[in-house]
Write a structure and sequence with these properties.
The complex is a heterodimer of chains A (301) and B (407).
Chain A: H1 6-19, H2 28-37, H3 45-66, H4 70-76, H5 81-95, H6 121-126, E1 141-147, E2 162-164, H7 165-190, H8 215-221, H9 226-247, H10 259-281
Chain B: E1 11-12, H1 24-31, H2 49-53, E2 59-63, H3 64-71, E3 84-89, H4 98-102, E4 134-135, H5 145-148, H6 155-172, H7 174-179, H8 185-188, H9 194-202, E5 213-215, H10 221-224, H11 227-246, H12 256-266, H13 270-297, H14 306-328, H15 333-346, H16 353-361, H17 368-399
Antiparallel strand pairs in B: 1-4, 2-3
Classes of the chains: A mainly alpha (301), B mainly alpha (407).
């Protein structure tokens, strides 16, 4: 048995105290002894885990052997007396009998084992607690959980704080989508996409510029050999970008812990941004440097 | 084996049972468990995966009132009808832990991820008895015919009466029920409750994209700025507008520019759609780039998300290539010379420079072959590849535990 939830153990402890049974702390010796003799003992690690369970098992058995009183035994079977009483009455009423005449044990509010019937009440009382709680076909049904409608959104410090995707996330996504569509639509209605004259191999525009996102590379061309600027530098940049998660061994994602990584990446971003901006707005005829206010610049998207 | 429906009618529980809260010590004696199943009620999304996968069918989801007198719990919450209880038949359960594996929220909650038991249990000797669950009849919509026909016994009243039955009949028709899954809100109606909020996602194609619940901080706009989602949406917008443009465009050097010109001047909404395509394309390059920056600044590329970052870099490259291949298609001066500059750079690739350039251009110089080649790349090959990478990207976002953070 692994990992019984904390609160169940606690409740069990409280209940044992209320019933006057030895708690787990007191019953440790018995528990260990029982654990060794338990069938699970051969599985090594399981023995220790089984110990508390076995102590649970041993304690009521010992207790019930000492006490012959049926009331005590019923108590220690773990089923509250009032529930047993209710169960017995319901059973009796189903059978059409008078509830009080149902069995001799009625006065004590004692066991009414579902399978055995009223006649076996005394037998159950003296024996170790038998399964009193039965489902159809004599099966023990255990309640796994009650999922309350409010509890689904209950927040707890230990667990990940979660909200339902619908409506919380989907509403945001949908509004962002609508907003973006409206933005693109309005912008497109107002600003026309460029369409220059028919392509002409004999009329090279001056300057000729690549699309804006490649202008950084074109800018590099003015400083380095074509192979370095066009292939080596972007290749290395791309390679480093891919390698980033494997090089960066710092497990934290807090900005204050990652000053180096953040400054390096900011540098990387700024490098390209500056190159693209220079290429876009500060290059005129012959791809010479000039300020945008000196001359009308050539810039088309 | 028939699959459990996503939202089956809540079963009634059999009545001739006794269920009582028992002491754990009693339970250990009665069933001698090696492990307990435990469901964290705060995390349960009611997907019924555990119920569905149980080979012995020994886990049941029932209405609370089926066992209410036994469990003695207070029932908070807005709508007590939405409380459910999960019960397990301890005598039948073999602790196979399939339900634990199946639970979609297992990752986040190690308490549920109990170790598999160390010894194999002998095969179960008999067919497990099943609970007799009487299915309750769940109507799609309650059509209130009796109150609706209050305006007399005349013919008009009867027609009205018939008309009022139509929505109910449609809702129950085979066509309607075949379209919407059993748990769909279009079949069972929607009232705002946590249970229905779960079912909205679970019975929706969006379940491929989003889990039922997400981290609370993940829905803050200030964290993601929606950049990833908007990049994806821009891609869809570009696909739609791009398909429209394809109807009016032929990729040859004689026709291309004229077609674009015609599109601008003679086609209804042609100019608008072309503008949208152009601007959305530039915006997508920008948003993908910003998305990458956002991910870096949040440290979201760290384990276990390293590989998704790599896929993201590939997606950035594909986005640039898509934009660049589209740049040539208008076949105007801007396109021709921008692409000339770009492809000249690729010609400087070491060793294979001229070969790379030849493959890209389809000839020694840019011409009609280049146009056809880039057209196919732009409308078919690259979108195909990027969709595959996007699928992996989105899948990994979920598999790696949702979005990163909080910081």
């Amino acid at each position: 048995m692994t990992d019984i939830p904390e609160h169940l153990l606690k409740r069990s402890q409280e209940r044992r105290k209320a019933l006057g049974l030895p708690t787990d702390d007191e019953g440790d010796d018995a528990g260990e002894a029982a654990g060794e003799s338990a069938p699970e003992a051969d599985t090594g690690g399981a023995a220790e885990e089984a110990a508390p369970a076995a102590s649970d098992e041993a304690a009521p058995a010992a207790a019930s052997a000492e006490s012959a009183a049926s009331e005590d035994a019923a108590e220690k079977s773990g089923v509250p007396a009032h529930l047993l009483e209710r169960s017995r009455r319901r059973r009796a009423s189903l059978a059409g009998d008078d509830p009080d005449a149902g069995g001799g044990a009625a006065g004590g509010g004692a066991a009414a084992p579902a399978a055995a019937g009223a006649g076996a009440a005394t037998a159950t009382a003296t024996a170790a607690p038998a399964p009193t709680v039965t489902g159809p076909g004599g099966h023990t049904q255990r309640l796994l959980t009650v999922v309350k409608s409010g509890s689904i959104q209950q927040t707890r410090a230990q667990t990940v704080d979660k909200v339902h995707t619908w409506p919380h996330l989907l509403v945001i996504e949908f509004s962002a989508l609508l907003l973006l569509t409206a933005l693109v639509f309005i912008f497109s209605a107002v600003v026309r996409a460029p369409l220059l004259g028919l392509a002409d191999f004999n009329a090279t525009p001056n300057p000729s510029k690549a699309p804006w996102y490649f202008l950084g590379l074109q800018e590099l061309l003015t400083m380095f050999q074509p192979m370095v600027a066009g292939v080596t530098i972007p290749g290395i940049g791309l390679f480093l970008l891919i390698l980033a998660p494997y090089v960066d061994k710092n497990p934290s994602n807090k900005p204050e812990d990652r000053k180096f990584a953040i400054s390096l990446f900011t540098l990387f971003l700024m490098f390209w941004a500056v190159l693209v901006i220079i290429g876009s707005f500060f290059r005129g005829t012959g791809f010479n440097f000039l300020f945008p206010w000196d001359n009308p610049i050539f810039f088309e998207l | 084996m028939a699959r459990t429906e996503a939202n089956p009618p809540m079963p009634d529980f059999v009545t001739d049972y006794e269920l009582a809260e028992v002491d754990p010590s009693y339970l250990t004696q009665a069933v001698k468990p090696k492990q307990f199943l435990h469901i964290d009620q705060a995390e349960c999304i009611l997907c019924e995966g555990c119920v569905d996968i149980c080979p012995w069918k020994c886990i049941h989801m029932v209405r609370v009132d089926a066992i209410a007198e036994a469990i003695n719990t207070e029932q908070p919450g807005e709508d007590p009808r939405d409380h459910v209880a999960f019960i397990v038949d301890e005598d039948v359960c073999t602790r196979c832990a399939l339900c634990v594996d199946r639970c979609p929220h297992r990752r986040d909650h190690p308490r549920q991820a109990q170790p598999r038991h160390r010894r194999r249990r002998p095969a179960h000797p008999h067919e497990p008895p099943r609970l007799q669950l009487r299915p309750a009849v769940l109507r799609t919509k309650d059509v209130d015919v009796a109150n609706g026909s209050g305006n007399g016994n005349g013919r008009g009243g009867r027609i009205l009466e018939k008309a009022r039955e139509i929505p109910g009949k449609i809702g129950e028709s085979q066509a309607w029920t075949s379209i919407f899954r059993p748990g769909s809100i279009y079949r069972k109606g929607y009232t705002d409750s946590p249970r229905n909020r779960s079912y909205v996602i679970m019975n929706n194609v969006l379940y491929h994209l989003h889990p039922v619940k997400v981290k609370r901080h993940a829905v803050k706009v200030s964290y993601t700025l929606c950049l990833g989602g908007l990049s994806f949406f821009l891609f869809m917008l570009l696909t739609v507008t791009g398909i429209f443009l394809m109807f009016f465009y032929r990729p040859t050097d004689v026709q291309a520019w004229n077609d674009v010109q015609t599109l601008e001047t003679a086609v209804t909404f042609g100019s608008l759609v072309r503008n949208m395509h152009r601007w959305a394309a530039h915006l997508m390059v920008l948003s993908v780039f910003l998305h990458m920056s956002r991910v870096f600044y949040h440290g979201a590329y760290k384990a276990p998300r390293e590989f998704n970052w790599v896929i993201g870099v590939v997606l950035l490259m594909l986005t640039l290539l898509l934009s660049f291949t589209g740049y040539l298609l208008p076949w105007d001066q801007l396109a021709l010379w921008a692409v000339t500059v770009g492809t000249n750079m690729m010609g400087f690739t070491p060793v294979f420079g001229s070969e790379v350039r030849f493959v890209l251009l389809g000839s020694k110089e840019i011409g009609t072959d280049t146009l056809l080649r880039w057209y196919v790349l732009h409308v078919l090959l690259l979108p195909f590849v990027i969709v595959i990478f996007m699928a992996v990207h989105f899948w990994r976002v979920r598999k790696d535990g949702g979005i990163s953070g909080p910081l």
